[in-house]
Design brief:
Elements lengths: L2 E3 L1 H7 L13 E3 L13 E3 L5 E4 L2 E9 L5 E10 L2 E9 L6 E10 L14 E5 L2 E3 L11 H17 L4 E5 L5 E2 L10 E8 L15 E8 H10 L11 H13 L7
Parallel strand pairs: 7-13
Antiparallel strand pairs: 1-5, 2-3, 4-5, 5-6, 7-8, 7-10, 8-9, 8-14, 11-13, 12-13
Length: about 260
């Protein structure tokens, strides 16, 4: 069956998979100085298992195999810590119009699509999202309770919502950002808030959020179509667009006629 295996297993199964191939095909670790020059001798991993950890997740080496278990190619796989994505929404008390929470946050790791040498951090428009490390594994909490608690916390912290009117969850409550390299899934939950009780969010030193707003659906779709908001924020984050598409599939009545 096709899947992935560790490099060490691939080397045992098919030794020639690693032997004699171009050095460019091997994983190499380079430790760089501030000026971008190599400070230490590059370490090349040929058929070795390696992992790089942080509190947000890990990157690991894996080898893709065919239906017969024969190695095809190796590539990095990313494992993220448990996280929740939230589509927060509410109705305008006067008009009944549905509005959806969108936050604008700097994403410094992303290159500019047309200016690859630019060092200006890009700002993305996205739904509320965050890690669940404070709740995962807590005694007595079910998976749904964890998602609700984490989702409510992120909605409050990132959008200023103070009153939650209800929760709903898709039948398949997860989505994958990019299955080409992402091994883990984000939990997904929909949260209805009372738009009459939205406070100005308090700045958080660990966050790069610039501002939050609840957009009417028509305006949200117009910004997605254009690719950018009025403030230049980019509406091209696959995690948010995936979650919004799932949301509208559950609430087709919210889609403009």
């Amino acid at each position: 069956m096709a899947g992935t295996i560790k490099p060490s297993e691939a080397r045992m199964r098919v030794p020639e998979f690693f032997e004699g191939r171009s050095p460019d095909a091997n994983w190499t670790l380079r430790v760089l100085t501030e000026g971008g020059k190599t400070r230490k001798r590059a370490l090349t991993f040929v058929g070795e298992d390696w992992e790089a950890f942080s509190r947000f997740g890990k990157v690991a080496s894996e080898v893709v195999v065919d239906e017969n278990g024969r190695p095809l190619f190796d590539r990095p796989v990313y494992y993220e810590q448990p996280c929740v994505n939230v589509v927060a929404w509410g109705r305008d008390a006067r008009t009944g119009e549905v509005k959806i929470a969108i936050i604008t946050e700097r994403r410094p790791h992303v290159n500019h699509p047309t200016l690859p040498d630019s060092t200006v951090p890009l700002a993305f428009a996205q739904i509320p999202m965050g890690f669940m490390e404070r709740l995962v594994g807590k005694a007595g909490l079910s998976e749904l309770e964890i998602a609700k608690s984490a989702g409510a916390r992120e909605t409050s912290e990132e959008t200023g919502a103070t009153i939650i009117r209800g929760f709903s969850r898709p039948a398949c409550p997860w989505h994958n950002y990019s299955p080409s390299f992402m091994a883990t899934w984000a939990d997904l939950i929909f949260i209805e808030v009372d738009l009459e009780f939205i406070q100005e969010r308090k700045p958080d030193g660990d966050e790069l959020i610039l501002h939050a707003e609840y957009l009417p659906v028509r305006e949200l779709l117009a910004r997605i179509r254009e690719g950018q908001g009025k403030d230049g924020a980019i509406f091209r984050g696959c995690s948010s667009l995936s979650a919004l598409m799932i949301f509208f599939s559950y609430y087709p009545e919210f889609w403009p006629r």
